Amino acid sequence: MGDDTGAAAAATVNDHSSSGDHRKEVDIYPLSCYYFGSKETIVFKDETLSDRIKRMKSNYAAHGLRTSVEAVILVELFKHPHLLLLQVRNSIFKLPGGRLRPGESDIDGLRRKLSRKLSASEDDSETEWEVGECLGMWWRHDFETLLYPYLPPNVKKPKTYGPIISGVPQLLSKFSINIIDP
C-alpha cells in the first residue's frame, strides 16, 4: 500500500510576489465562511495496530505500491491560520484524503476524497475543490510508523509514503499567507 501525499491549501494561491519576496501567496478565509455539519461515521477497518499491519501487507502483496493524497486545508480563526483535521478516533486526527483508485490522477482522486469526506453529500457536484501544488511526499520503507522525506537508498521496494502533520508548518513556510476579511 502506498501513500502519495499531494497536499493542497483550501485557499487561493497567487504566483505574484511582493517587495522582492518570491514566495507564492495563499489567501485564507475565516472559519465562519464555511459550513460544518456531521456525516455518518466512517468505520475504522482495523481494531489494533497489528490488524492494520496485516491488512497493509495483504494489500501490498495484492496491489503493490498504492498512492494516497491528502489535503492541507487552511482557515483563519482569531487572525491566525488553522489547519483543518478530521478526527477519526478520540485522540487520532488526520488530514482529509485517502487512497487513489488504479489509474486515477492525484487531483481527481483528491477532489473525490474531499467530496466524500467533507461535502454535504458524496455526489455533491456543486462543490468545486481548488487543488494547489503538491507540498511534499514521504516514504515508508516497511510497514512501520517511521516516515522519511526521501526514499532511503537501501530500499528497493518502498511500502508506502504519506504525510506527517507536524511537518505542515515547515512545508507552508514557502508561502506568504494572506488572511482575507469577507
Give a concise summary:
With 182 residues, the protein is of the alpha+beta class.
Describe the structure.
This protein is α+β, with helices and mostly antiparallel strands and 182 residues long. It has a single domain, classed as Alpha-Beta Complex (Nucleoside Triphosphate Pyrophosphohydrolase), CATH 3.90.79. Helices cover 18% and strands 19% of the residues. The protein has helices spanning 49-63, 106-118, 168-172, and strands spanning 12-14, 24-28, 68-70, 74-77, 80-83, 86-89, 92-94, 97-99, 175-179. Strands 1-2-9 form a 3-stranded mixed sheet, with no helix packed on it. Strands 3-8 form a two-stranded antiparallel sheet. The longest helix has 15 residues, at 49-63. The termini are far apart.
Layout: helices, strands, pairs:
Blueprint: E1 12-14, E2 24-28, H1 49-63, E3 68-70, E4 74-77, E5 80-83, E6 86-89, E7 92-94, E8 97-99, H2 106-118, H3 168-172, E9 175-179
Parallel strand pairs: 2-9
Antiparallel strand pairs: 1-2, 3-8, 4-5, 6-7
Subunit structure: Homodimer. Component of the cleavage factor Im (CFIm) complex.
Keywords: mRNA processing, Nucleus, RNA-binding
InterPro entries: Cleav_polyA_spec_factor_su5, NUDIX_hydrolase-like_dom_sf
